[in-house]
């Protein structure tokens, strides 16, 4: 029905209006018959199922037709047992199915806009406050196993079945309406958070048609491992596919908001590369973003603003200064036509009123802060459970479940979180061998090494098959894996991608290679890169730095199994093949936004949750000795 109504309102299709009017007549008769035969209570009970945004579309239809039957039918989908609690300003969300009831709130918002009944504005405001304060994860999403749990009890609700994607889609609608009514920054902040962390990562990389139903939040969970996991391109069509597709089709619908009046205004909420032809204000805006990273943590936005009229009228542009940046005293800047402006504090709007010219240029330089936020759970045992953010990006730690960080002696968040330096981002390699027309890789399996078939990009296995080569007592320069001669003769430590500070370590010959923390002077973690013993120009062998003549050895080329161990030199061809590896570009690379966090038992690689595919991660960390909302 909503789609048909859009066909009429956006494309002028009168047949679509006739169809949706007929459907409203049909449903109206059905509802009246149920009430007449079984009582109205039976009808209210039927609304416990996912009836979608029926009240919303019916209020929209009434605004077009003026037919009182459409208004009455819309009222009959305003679920009283749910909206009544909100009218009393009572948080009774616990136990309600989230995605059944968020659309009811959207319909209540439309009732306020249609009838002017302020009660429904208050209902929506109260609902948004309850969700934000007590029921939302660090992502901005809500629900566990599709339902709301008790308020401020999310610490015990971190599982694989968190945050149904549909709920985030609908919460964005609620937040968008709230901002339109109030222009309050809190709703713009929510929209940015939920869009960035709860929408952009629900598709697997750039694969069309591969989406998730739930967004797991528990320690060591993965988007790929839940009741639904990733869907398939042609055989999945859950509700979250419909809302997911629509979410990606309207990424630009909440960048700019217009304020009408004698002097028109425009609010710029989201910093997303875009072009706007603002007809009311008579100007065209080109917004550009300079790429940033954890090593270059400044959001640099430029606006080319040009009048589209011979004599432009005065108008006001309001630029959102996010709460996660810093003040002008600490480095934030705004310039208009290369002249510095007085920048407002974070969490407010920079308002500029003027007659815009034909070639005005505005630039914002907003340093991006690291900050933390405690989970919404008021029990003392969860006070240390916190999410870590880089500006609007929720950072997830690559972890199979470990989540402990001790920040007791830290005065700044930068004491225990540091960006991955550019020099540390290479060389990332994967060690491969060929056998029977198949490619095998060295892979970390529970801190021992084994050989496995070449994994698919984005998988946990691809991450575990990527290692960083660190020179011993020298500086590693960038090199191409196709030309590894630079490495020959050097001693290196080999660090698993997701275990910074831990290295491949050999034991006695004929024993497995393990992964352990490097101890200064321990040559068991040193390997000398030598020419491949198989004699091929593109291979290398890794000789023990402690036991000369012993090498990293794989059984993949013969029948001795797949484990990787240290074996001493033999002259037969099978041995020479088993200790010869090709250095390939790492199957996994660091995201431009990558950090290292100091853990209790191990350190963590942090990357934006939105960027992850099948990797195991933890969204929340158990951080002792640290208060949330600490910026740096």
UniProtKB/TrEMBL annotation:
**A Gene Ontology biological process term:** L-arabinose metabolic process
Mind telling me which Pfam families this protein's record contains?
Beta-AFase-like_GH127_cat, Glyco_hydro127M
Q: What domain of life?
A: Eukaryota
Regions crossing the membrane? none
Molecular function terms, GO-annotated: alpha-L-arabinofuranosidase activity
Q: Which Gene3D superfamilies match?
A: 2.80.10.50
| Non-reducing end beta-L-arabinofuranosidase-like GH127 middle domain segment(s) | 266-368
UniProt xrefs under InterPro entries: 6-hairpin_glycosidase_sf, AbfB_ABD_sf, Beta-AFase-like_GH127_cat, Beta-AFase-like_GH127_middle
Q: List the residue ranges forming a coiled coil, or say none.
A: none
Task: Enumerate the SUPFAM superfamilies for this protein.
Answer: AbfB domain (SSF110221), Six-hairpin glycosidases (SSF48208)
Task: Please report the stretch or stretches of sequence annotated as the Non-reducing end beta-L-arabinofuranosidase-like GH127 catalytic domain.
Answer: 1-253
Output this protein's name.
Alpha-L-arabinofuranosidase B arabinose-binding domain-containing protein
């Amino acid at each position: 029905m909503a789609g048909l109504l859009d066909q009429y309102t956006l494309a002028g299709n009168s047949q679509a209006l006739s169809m949706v009017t007929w459907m409203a007549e049909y449903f109206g008769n059905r509802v009246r018959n149920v009430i007449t035969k079984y009582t109205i209570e039976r009808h209210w009970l039927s609304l416990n199922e996912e009836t979608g945004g029926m009240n919303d579309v019916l209020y929209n239809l009434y605004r077009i037709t003026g037919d009182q039957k459409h208004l009455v039918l819309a009222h009959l989908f305003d679920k009283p047992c749910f909206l009544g609690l909100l009218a009393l300003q009572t948080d009774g969300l616990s136990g309600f199915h989230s995605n059944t009831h968020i659309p009811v709130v959207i319909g209540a918002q439309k009732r306020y806009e249609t009838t002017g009944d302020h009660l429904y504005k208050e209902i929506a405001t109260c609902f948004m406050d309850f969700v934000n304060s007590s029921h939302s994860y660090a992502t901005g999403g809500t629900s566990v196993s599709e339902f709301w749990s008790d308020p401020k009890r999310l610490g015990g609700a971190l599982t694989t079945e968190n945050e149904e994607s549909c709920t985030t889609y609908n919460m964005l609608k609620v937040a968008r309406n709230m901002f339109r009514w109030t222009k309050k920054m809190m709703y713009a902040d929510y929209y940015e958070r939920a869009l960035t962390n709860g929408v952009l990562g629900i598709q697997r990389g750039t694969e069309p048609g591969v989406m998730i139903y739930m967004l797991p939040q528990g320690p060591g969970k993965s988007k790929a491992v839940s009741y639904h996991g990733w869907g398939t391109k042609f055989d999945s069509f859950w509700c979250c596919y419909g809302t997911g597709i629509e979410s990606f089709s309207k990424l630009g619908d909440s960048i700019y908001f217009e304020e009408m009046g004698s002097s028109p205004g425009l609010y710029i909420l989201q910093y997303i590369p875009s072009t706007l032809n603002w007809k009311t204000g008579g100007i065209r805006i080109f917004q550009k973003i300079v790429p940033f990273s954890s090593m270059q943590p400044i959001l640099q936005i430029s606006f080319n603003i040009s009048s589209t009229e011979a004599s432009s009228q005065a108008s006001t542009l309001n630029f959102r200064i996010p709460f996660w940046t810093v003040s002008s005293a600490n480095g934030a800047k705004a310039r208009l036509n290369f002249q510095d402006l007085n920048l407002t504090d974070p969490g407010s709007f920079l308002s500029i009123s003027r007659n815009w010219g034909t070639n005005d240029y505005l630039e914002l330089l907003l340093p991006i802060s690291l900050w933390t936020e405690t989970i919404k759970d008021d029990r003392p045992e969860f006070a240390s459970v916190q999410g870590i953010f880089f500006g609007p990006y929720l950072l997830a730690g690559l972890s199979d479940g470990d989540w402990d960080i001790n920040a007791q002696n830290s005065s700044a968040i930068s004491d225990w979180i540091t960006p991955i330096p550019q020099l540390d981002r290479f060389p990332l390699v994967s060690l491969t061998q060929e056998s029977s027309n198949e490619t095998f890789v060295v892979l970390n399996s529970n801190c021992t090494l084994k050989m496995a078939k070449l994994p698919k990009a984005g998988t946990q296995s691809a991450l575990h098959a990527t290692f960083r080569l660190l020179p011993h007592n020298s500086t590693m320069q960038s090199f191409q894996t196709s030309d590894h001669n630079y490495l020959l003769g050097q001693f290196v430590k080999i660090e698993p991608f997701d275990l910074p500070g831990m290295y491949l370590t050999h034991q006695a010959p004929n024993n497995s290679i393990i992964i352990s923390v490097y101890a200064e002077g321990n040559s068991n973690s040193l390997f000398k890169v030598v020419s491949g013993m198989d004699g091929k120009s593109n291979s290398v062998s890794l000789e023990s730095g402690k036991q000369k003549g012993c090498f990293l050895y794989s059984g993949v080329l013969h029948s001795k199994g797949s484990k990787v161990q240290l074996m001493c030199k033999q002259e037969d061809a099978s041995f020479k093949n088993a200790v010869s590896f090709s250095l390939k570009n790492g199957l996994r690379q660091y995201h431009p936004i990558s950090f290292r966090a100091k853990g209790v038992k191990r350190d963590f690689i942090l990357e934006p949750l939105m960027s992850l595919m099948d990797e195991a991660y933890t969204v929340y960390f158990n951080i002792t000795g640290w208060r949330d909302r600490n910026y740096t």
